[in-house]
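Posting this for the archive.
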Amino acid sequence: MLAELGLAPFEGKQVRNPDLFAGSWSKRRRAEHVLHRLAFMRELLDRLGHSSVVLYRGLSFSGQRQARRNNSFTSATFNLEVAMDHFCDDDPASTCVLLRQPVPVEKLFMSYLETEQMNRQYKEAEAVLLHDAASDLF
């Protein structure tokens, strides 16, 4: 649905099961959900006085970093300490990357800010973003 709405690129297989978009999971309902989520995040952060937020990503992996492609979403965090936990790796052969970037609220799809239950249970301070193919950072 993100690709059909023009929000994210898509390269991949076509849907094999026509029932995937049947009933309450119709394309129309999915599209409405995506648009409502994006609108909610924009309104929430606008009311908090933010046109952008500073987010972090910490990555570590074996070998060289591979280019990412075909992603709809990117996960980041509002919390530097969480990013550092993903960045730090004791293996000297690992490649580690730590990113900090201001991100426009228009890219935010979901965050930990939305529910008390998520804040209480998870300390990741997560932000789920629409993937930006032009910027491989976030």
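Residues 2 and 8 are 5 Å apart (CA to CA). The chain has one domain: 21-130.
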